[in-house]
């Protein structure tokens, strides 16, 4: 007869599996995470940061299609497969949207695409510019599923690659907040006295400063950039973790198993890390899920203000900033699509956090 596992972990997992919205949200998070990792594999635009601009086809509606002529530069980028799949291709070729073309006497004549019923410029290029004078592989019919942005870049590719920042900032920010918060909260709660008073003074000072203002100050101090934003957001989210750890530590250090550990002669480090922290990790998991959502919103706000991820790097917040005025210009989807993506990811993390809270609640 098989034994039934009745450990607290297995019971919490069983309760979590019964929560439909929690499991559904977790699947959404996993899917977005996989898409962000393999963004360059599935994105139509494989160039670095999906930054291939075509100004002649800017702000086109979803489903727009056009013939694209690629003119090879003949320059070898010497980029390995790993770098192409995870960081994009160093595209040295030129892409030109065209409306028509013909070949006469080893010369390719083409008409550049022009919108609003206008006739584009007539240009020509020698077939010798193409390998073996074969131009056909370099003319492709391309469809932009989400249309193009105001610079003529493929919007679907920008959305997919922009998910990287919004997704991974949650992991980095939560890791930093847990690292700092666990240390500060454990010291304050376990030792108490002057150490507790000092740490609580630091916590209260940090807590009194508006989060966005503190992030802006740290970002300006560290400089604008990708990792600077991650560090800045993480350094502003440790306060809540520290307060929860401190409260849990104060109550846990009076438990009998801690008294027994002291009687056995274990040092404070072992008691805190091996005995107390594993027993208070339930509330921390819930806080971490909420901090994921908060980090995504803070990063989006910073990118919207222009001090987050810098162009040409794709970011959902920066995409809203670039296109929010299109809401009144008849193309609101340019701002609504990244806004919906932010809302979906934040809601998924919040629902997972609620499901974890219910699953880890020993009273139920």
CATH superfamily (homologous) name of the largest domain: MetI-like
Q: Total strand count, please? A: 5
Low-pLDDT segments, ≥5 res? none
User: CATH topology of the largest domain, anyone?
Assistant: MetI-like fold
Shape: elongated
Q: Helicity, in percent? A: 55-70%
Mean pLDDT: 87
Category from helices, strands and their pairing: alpha+beta
Q: Biggest sheet, open or closed, and with what strands and sense?
A: 5 strands, antiparallel
User: Helix and strand succession?
Assistant: HHHEHEEEEHHHHHHHHHH
Strand fraction: 5-15%
- Look at the structure and give the CATH class of the largest domain: Mainly Alpha
How are the strands ordered across the major sheet?
4-3-2-1-5
CATH architecture type of the largest domain: Orthogonal Bundle
Can you count the helices? 14
**How many individual domains?**
2
Strand and helix layout:
Blueprint: H1 8-17, H2 20-37, H3 39-42, E1 64-71, H4 81-87, E2 94-104, E3 107-112, E4 122-126, E5 139-144, H5 155-191, H6 193-208, H7 211-222, H8 226-235, H9 238-252, H10 256-263, H11 268-276, H12 281-305, H13 316-323, H14 333-359
Antiparallel strand pairs: 1-2, 1-5, 2-3, 3-4
GO biological process, one term: transmembrane transport
Subcellular location: Cell membrane
Membrane topology: Multi-pass membrane protein
